[in-house]
Amino acid sequence: MASGTSGNIYVGIGGWTFEPWRGAFYPDKLPQKRELEYASQNLTSIEINGTYYGSQKPESFRKWHDETPDGFVFSLKGSRFTTNRKELAQAGESVERFIGSGILELKNKLGPINWQFMETKKFQPEDFEAFLDLLPHSVEGHRLRHAVEVRNDSFVAPDFVELARKHNVAVITAGDSKFPQIADPTADFVYLRIMGTDEKHKRGYSEAELDAWAKRALAYAAGDTPDDLSRVCDIAARKAPRDVYLYVISGHKEVNPAAAMALIERLK
Question: For the whole prediction, is pTM greater than 0.85?
Answer without folding.
Answer: yes
